[in-house]
Design goal:
By secondary structure, this protein is of the alpha/beta class. Helix content is 38%, strand content 20%. It has 11 helices and 9 strands. A hairpin with a 2-residue loop joins strand 8 and strand 9 (271-278). Bound molecules: adenosine monophosphate.
Length: 279
């Protein structure tokens, strides 16, 4: 497995490769778990060269404490990637990607950012889009793999990829979960075992929504589920939205089967978790 710390070295390596090779890219912020590895394994099935980046992107954090406390395990990550035969890892320092005091670009998301993460984390998606544009310019992948776990991010990346005229195909991969149902997340490392147990309410509620949709109105179902969180004072519910999958706007009436999503953001012991289900 090749490891690059400098974009110019990565670019010249990629330039030296056979142009017919299908290259797939998996951008991550490290502290890799089986969810990340499932993206790489999916990418490997459909490509000749898989590139993974590990970079904790400062511009997408709107909370300094969250950025500082974000887990960083580069040696473990390199071992995990090498064990599954990832071809290339790009592990840059901030200075390789950002000039001093560089500001993020502002993008248009056609309303995909109006609710949920876009509303609760101002500037977050501009940080995400900025780093994805930079990384795509370096890697120029044929395909890039992203998790459905970050559904709004996935839809926004599909949108900006088209807007910026990248020819990269964006592939969404289903969410990998712990046996408890909790979505795997690097942030789970910051939770105690009792917090991990409490956090299972998030996925239980999403399953409840999927099972009870259409039988109850959107409004009734949301109220019932919000009440479940209110009964758990140690979990702070930031939002619970039932949205249309195409524009991510909250709905009053269900769309066709497979065109709705329920999305939750909640914090436990100051650790912010998100999850969703499509139904
Ligand atoms: P992150 O390191 O959190 O930026 O995530 C890197 C990529 O892994 C993103 O495309 C995420 O959506 C994806 N990802 C994170 N957690 C999971 C999971 N549990 N299952 C599948 N993909 C995931």
């Amino acid at each position: 497995m090749k490891i690059f710390k400098l974009k110019e070295e990565l670019k010249s390596y990629l330039n030296s490769q056979d142009k017919d090779k299908i290259t797939s890219f998996v951008p991550t912020m490290g502290a890799l778990h089986d969810g990340h590895l499932s993206l790489i394994l999916n990418a490997k099935k459909n490509s000749d060269l898989v590139i993974c980046s590990i970079f904790v992107n400062p511009t997408q954090f709107n909370n300094l404490k969250d950025l500082e406390e974000y887990p960083r395990t580069p040696n473990r990550d390199i071992k995990a990637l090498s064990d599954i035969n990832c071809d290339v890892v790009y592990l840059p320092e901030i200075s390789d990607l950002y000039r001093t005091n560089e500001k993020v670009k502002q993008y248009q998301y056609n309303g995909l950012d109006t609710y949920m993460e876009g509303k609760g984390r101002p500037g977050h998606f501009d940080g995400v889009a900025t780093i994805i544009e930079k990384l795509f310019m370096i890697v120029r992948p044929n395909k890039a793999y992203f998790g459905q776990k970050d559904l709004q991010q996935l839809q926004i990346i599909k949108h900006i990829t088209k807007q910026l005229n990248f020819e990269t195909e964006i592939v969404g991969v289903s969410t990998k979960r712990e046996s408890s149902g909790l979505a795997m997340s690097s942030r789970n490392k910051r939770l105690s075992s009792s917090d991990l147990e409490k956090a299972t309410l998030i996925y239980k509620t999403l399953l409840f929504i999927k099972e009870n949709a259409y039988k109850n109105s959107v409004k009734e179902l949301k109220e019932t589920c919000i009440q479940k969180f209110n009964e758990e004072p140690e979990i702070h519910l930031e939002y619970l939205e039932i949205v249309s999958l195409d524009n991510l706007h909250p709905i009053d009436m269900y769309k066709h089967n497979g065109c709705n999503a329920a999305c939750i953001a909640a914090s436990i012991s100051s650790v912010r978790l998100i999850d969703n289900i499509i139904f």
